[in-house]
Amino acid sequence: MQTMPGTTGAHALVRTLVDSDVRVCFANPGTSEMHFVAALDTLPQMRGVLCLFEGVATGAADGYGRMTGHPAATLLHLGPGLANGLANLHNARRANTPVVNVVGDHALGHKALDSLLESNIDALAGTVSGWVRRSASIEDLGTDAAEAVAATLTSGAAGEGGRDPSRNGTSGSVSTLIVPADLSWSTGGRSARPVKIPAPAAPSEQHVRSIAKLLRSGESCVLLLDGPALSEQGLRAASRIERATGARLLARNWAARQRRGAGVPHVEPLAYRGEQITAQLRDAHHLILCGARTPVTSFAYPDRSSLPTPPDTRVHVLAEDEGADTVLALDMLADHVAPHTEPLLAPSAPPPLPRGALTVDNWAAVIGALLPEEAIVCDESITAGMATLHAATAGSPPHDVLGLTGLSIGQGLPSATGAAIACPDRPVICLQADGSAMYTLSALWSHAREHLDITTVILNNSSYAILRAELERVGATAEASAQLFDLSRPDLDFVSLAHGMGVPAERAGTAEDLARQFRRALSEPGPHLIEAVLLPHGG
Amino acid sequence: MQTMPGTTGAHALVRTLVDSDVRVCFANPGTSEMHFVAALDTLPQMRGVLCLFEGVATGAADGYGRMTGHPAATLLHLGPGLANGLANLHNARRANTPVVNVVGDHALGHKALDSLLESNIDALAGTVSGWVRRSASIEDLGTDAAEAVAATLTSGAAGEGGRDPSRNGTSGSVSTLIVPADLSWSTGGRSARPVKIPAPAAPSEQHVRSIAKLLRSGESCVLLLDGPALSEQGLRAASRIERATGARLLARNWAARQRRGAGVPHVEPLAYRGEQITAQLRDAHHLILCGARTPVTSFAYPDRSSLPTPPDTRVHVLAEDEGADTVLALDMLADHVAPHTEPLLAPSAPPPLPRGALTVDNWAAVIGALLPEEAIVCDESITAGMATLHAATAGSPPHDVLGLTGLSIGQGLPSATGAAIACPDRPVICLQADGSAMYTLSALWSHAREHLDITTVILNNSSYAILRAELERVGATAEASAQLFDLSRPDLDFVSLAHGMGVPAERAGTAEDLARQFRRALSEPGPHLIEAVLLPHGG
């Protein structure tokens, strides 16, 4: 612990974050966070990135954390600032992404006065955070910050202050530190050293043997992969198991981060609809969860079950202890059942470029045909991509896909921001549905300000298409009110919207347009946006 | 109570809302709200207005409630949908606006499964609502809805199901009704009759006499007006008191709704800064709160008090009982101390049109010079308007001003949406700071879709100007990090942004531009946007 009698609490806080290797702060500050902002000047190791809306800041921190395995900070202003960031923190929570929120609050003596911006920050923070603390004294601020960082990683596998980019950043959690303004502005802060992160629990050898026995039993097994199991290391182990035992592999759909493409084992996604999942698991005697949860449908529907696993399928958990290392368990399992088997790697086989009018069916093939090496794909294509994107990119160069983990829309553009800052040498492709784009559109401005190499493709079908499908599915019908899912009248013009935030943009109406514009965007530095105007199925 | 065995819970819910005179629903629905949407088809008395972000829906409901005194409904999707709407519900709470939120939740049997969108809706709702209920059975749904509406009005003055547009809609509260999807889709719902709203408590005659005695004592008195006291009726009574007794009047700044302009008594605003408030109250022996709270600064600052009322000033409350009728109390007080005095009404005296470059100092005079009769002014101009707007519009035709009550930015464009739907025959002028506009910009799309007569003036000073001032004020300094308040690099182009959402737009660089464009916008139906590019003080 370092005592700094002449420095502010905010300085000790930022110093501690920097020492704990938190190097980026996605910020939308207000009056109560001014000393934090001032501290950034003297600590250039922390990069401040201005976001024009808190939902952009939190979504960016999520994207950053997924790519680095280590938290970024957010800087949010009081309860309303946190409220604006909650939806993407919900996605981060569902992604197990490490994120440290720093939320400024009123000075202690001011809180009881119920001034205009007063609200219940603690209640809001509790809904998304694995760890919440309100700093009680300036002496504690450094320690609190160090513990906040550690808490984001304790269910993960990172070492002290270190980051391991070969792992997925998908075994952490959200911490929220609430900092009264008077602690920030007072002097006498003490920074604190990083808290040592315990190594994840070693998988139980005995338990791994029992799973191995299942796999050798001759009964049909399915391995459902999620979290770190979808890293390259996890997928390679799973593929060895698949080849040696005949077990089938499935990957959680819209996972936090999945390694895909040529040279990576290919895994079919778990379907979105319950009855499709039931069909996928129909013959399975055993469902083995590898970092995954038992399948649950996203919504309940009249007269349908929310639990699609067939009743005769027995469910097992590969790494039973909380925080156990799923990837290590997969490696151990593979060494048991497939000691001499190599994984089956997807061949390089990008799809041919489609031609003609752009439709819901063919746009993904353009992306798959032209996807660059080591791309980071932020996928919020929703209905536009559900049926086609996975297959279209299976043979593209190796890449990572970040999915809409919590189904809270408005994640794509912000997470692309964070991913691009985390990985400045990798191209980021943001596949963004139109309706969802409008939630956090100002992320485009941050793309431009930070000159991030992000190519955004807006999939414009002029509707909340998923809701049209859902309306029917829940057994409701609506005619006049179907206008509540209609995004035309007026049409959104994403080219103008992008220009308004300093991002070069073009509109594509044919597959040829999209291919030409996508190639150009990839060849130039900085952000680009392409509005892909999609006709319905069949063109 | 009306039993409708063949109809859904959602239908009974909407039917009850309609019967309780809730006639507009600002909606951003999802799967769990589909039956509500379907019910809208059979109940055309409820107008569904699609908003592309929940913060627009809640801000619109706030603007609507301020203008009608009666709640609109919002329709929000699960916890993340409510979370996205919280910041403007915070403003509604601080405005005492009646609003009924309908938040869909998962079906009861689905909740325990912790599916991807599951979150703690109740905790979120509690932070902004005066009334929260989770419907427990389909039989209760109608009754719950009727009670939700009544709860928004119980501190107000409206009669059963009725609205009284001569009053300000500023004595209500926010209700949140959480509706599990299975209650919505099941049949056997019963609508419920409106709950009778009790009349507000009559002011105590004895207490009013004691205040009258103060006013006649020869000691210096200040009446601080807020809420319904800022209605025309309240202001007229206050003006009579001022003229007859020499008491001074002050109006809360950024009030929920204030009547202003020619023919209305003019009242100086309470200042924003604590030391300015202390100076305003320096000679006051008595501060009489008329629907207002004791002044509290918005933020604490090192070595400054948050309570700017001078220690020797005694504070009194005009209408002591909660829910007592402040306007009636002012009338009674005026009849005591000023039985034969007429109010002093502001003369018609719009400012002359300024000329030359547009600056922070002169833009408001253009608005004041051209403001149309019975305009509704949604004021989120913040620093751009703080010093000049009030004076510039004091002699304009009579109008209402809706202020940023909770200081949670991003309210202006949404509240204009709601005000225009509430009052289709009145021109709505939205004065919107640039940084704040980006929070809820998609409100412009709703302006266009609903063809609302809203003229938005974006005050573009390319910065979070208030934060530059605050940085200095809290005793912090920052150089490199001052970029965190800088909205240039790239410049936001609001003309392109407006075009992208179907709103005609122009840019004004001179006072002459602004005058010409403002006149044209007012003369044409439907929405318009003018980007006023402001030079700093002094041009």
UniProtKB/TrEMBL annotation, chains A, B:
UniProt keyword Transmembrane, yes or no: no
Residue span, Thiamine pyrophosphate enzyme TPP-binding domain: 407-531
Keywords, sorted A to Z: Thiamine pyrophosphate
Region (Disordered) location: 154-173
Matches recorded under InterPro entries: THDP-binding, Thiamin_PyroP_enz_TPP-bd_dom, TPP_enz, TPP_enzyme_TPP-bd
GO MF term set: acetolactate synthase activity; flavin adenine dinucleotide binding; magnesium ion binding; thiamine pyrophosphate binding
Thiamine pyrophosphate enzyme N-terminal TPP-binding domain: residues covered: 8-111
Family from the record: Belongs to the TPP enzyme family.
Protein name per Swiss-Prot or TrEMBL: Acetolactate synthase I/II/III large subunit
Gene: ilvB_2
